[in-house]
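A student in our group prepared the protein record below, which I am reviewing. Thanks in advance; the entry in question is below.
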Amino acid sequence: MDIPLHVRLRRGFRSFLYTLLSSFIKQETSKELVDPREIQTILIVRPNYRIGNLIFLTPLIEQLQKNIPNVQIDIIVGLKLAGDILQEIPSVDNVFALPRDVLYKPHKLFTLIKNVRAKKYDLVLNISGGSFSSQLVTLLTRAKYKASFENKKRIIPLTHSIEKQNLFKHSGSQPLELLRLFPFELPKTSQQLNIFLTPKEEQKGKEELEKLLQTTTPLSSVKTVAIFRNARFDKKIEDSWWTEWFEALRELDNNIVVIDVLSPDIPAKLHQDMLQYQNKNLRILGAFFKATSLYISADTGPLHLALASNAKTLALFNKTSKEVYGTLGDENLTLDINNLSPKDVALKTYQLLKGKNDVTT
């Protein structure tokens, strides 16, 4: 597909601007490790608007709080709704949101910077090395140390930079390479996502499911499957596929309850025999997923929310990499559905609900 002229011009100008500005910046950074005894406050800069990309911060946050006792972590995100997911994680103090309309309402940017500059941090970690907005925010913060992954688009001075070595395949563990700033031992494998649901939130999720089912029967005796049908671009699975999957699943066991999770892009349930549920509070939504017997979707934000909520999960991939974005954990499963029919997936769904752990990918 041909790239429109205005897009090519914008990219060319941006590349020229990066090259010009970087020529004025001192590129040398310290090779010395950061002494964790000097670190009590950390600011993580990730002004991104996708739920999954913010949840991918959780392994790094967990390792920082594990290795630096009593650390206080602030985070700058792009989407407040998604940022709220991180607010209840231990060690997280403040979550600030960088709104998208700052060009039209610059006072919002000034308010954010004012709030951030009210505290002098011991360390600022810019997760997106080449992002202009990330670099701008990093530049305007007050900190003893400022670090990021090295990037040829860097236009701000840093005290430390890390050359990415691609030590982890899963996207949720890739930020863990920033731990190389410290004398820490890195995890050997990719780490689980975890938003640390509170007992109160988990109870609320169970109550929401019980209310939807309109039954006093223990949840453990009812097989419930939550599905989310939306995804970005060509990752989305067509409704006709979901309908065929649903009919095949009912043939295997008509007592399985399927819950269609709605969103602004999915305003109505797919089938009259499905239940429907929605919740704007993403942490409670994650708790709801955990309360069900199984969560199923394509590669999308709610998938990573389910995984970070410790819900049993079946991920259906048709485009993106299973190794980079798929499920982790022995109970969860990621399927490449390009060569599988909806009936094939219905059978694997049924097997997972029966507790069979030998379902193949």
User: Anything to note?
Assistant: The longest helix spans residues 5-22. Residues 124 and 146 are 5 Å apart (CA to CA). The chain has a mean pLDDT of 90.
